[in-house]
Specification:
The protein has 11 helices and no strands. By secondary structure, the protein is mainly alpha-helical. The longest helix is centred in the last third of the chain and has 32 residues.
């Protein structure tokens, strides 16, 4: 059955690409700045946090010198947090968001999470391209180690979509899940070393971070961007295992309750 669903998704690939393009066009229709809004919101956060933590509080990263070290650290974390939170948050509400479409058109529901991933990756690519330009201007661009970000991004997106789809299916039957997940994301942001380095935390708190899969992804990205070295693979394998387990959960939920979702939408 799973193979049949995969074949059906592949057969609807034109629909997936068209939906991604349509989402991008609708988002910036009648907008003077267009895709620049993708950059302005995270840029505002970066400026605020940089001023507060780097200037006012004189925050410093242990072992890293230079006036731009904290800003680069912050940008890296927000970039990867942004793609994770966007995909996970949209995926958990995608079936409810597209309820009218699901009732009118017969197509595999699993196409919708792929649309979410494609849209999220486009937004990430826009911001990351500008980030690379800044690194070039600051003479802080890594060399071939930059390729290490590909598996880091892949695992981050995999974790996001697996978690989002699992919650999205449950959200069709229990609507409180969507509201609760939005609250969880707010706490998750501050429980992940994005604004602050993990090294400033007490030893017990650093131990708790071991159970935060996203902390490993962002730490790996920091390693590539700041240290110019390849990321540590063992923690990422652990995150990949979590993503794989969530994927199994998502597939089981879809196979067991996919047919019932139509009545609840």
């Amino acid at each position: 059955m799973l193979k049949q669903h995969a074949s059906a998704v592949y057969a609807n690939r034109d629909f997936i690409f068209a939906s991604i393009r349509r989402e991008f066009e609708i988002r910036y229709r009648n907008s003077l700045l267009g895709a620049m809004w993708t950059v302005l919101n995270p840029l505002a956060l970066i400026v605020i946090y940089t001023v507060i933590f780097s200037k006012i509080m004189q925050a410093r990263l242990p072992g890293l010198d230079g006036p731009y070290a904290y800003s680069i650290y912050l940008c890296t974390g927000i970039l990867f947090w942004g793609v994770f939170s966007e995909i996970a948050l949209r995926a958990q509400g995608i079936f409810l968001e597209q309820a009218n479409l699901l009732k009118k058109i017969n197509f595999p529901r699993l196409c919708l999470p792929l649309v979410v991933v494609g849209s999220g990756l486009i937004n990430f690519a826009i911001m990351f391209a500008l980030f690379l330009a800044v690194l070039v201007a600051l003479e802080a661009l890594p060399g071939w180690e930059l390729l290490g970000l590909i598996p880091v991004l892949g695992i981050t997106v995999w974790l996001a979509i697996a978690l989002g789809v699992s919650l999205g299916i449950l959200n069709v039957f229990f609507r409180d899940i969507g509201h609760f997940f939005g609250v969880v994301l707010q706490f998750w942001f501050w429980l992940t070393p994005i604004v602050y380095p993990a090294s400033i935390l007490p030893e017990q708190a650093q131990g708790v971070l071991l159970f935060n899969p996203l902390a490993h992804c962002i730490a790996a990205a920091h390693t590539v961007i700041l240290d110019h070295t390849m990321p540590p693979w063992r923690p990422l394998l652990g995150v990949a295992l979590v993503a794989a387990l969530l994927s199994v959960l998502a597939v089981r939920l879809y196979l067991q309750h996919g047919a019932d979702m139509q009545d609840e939408l």
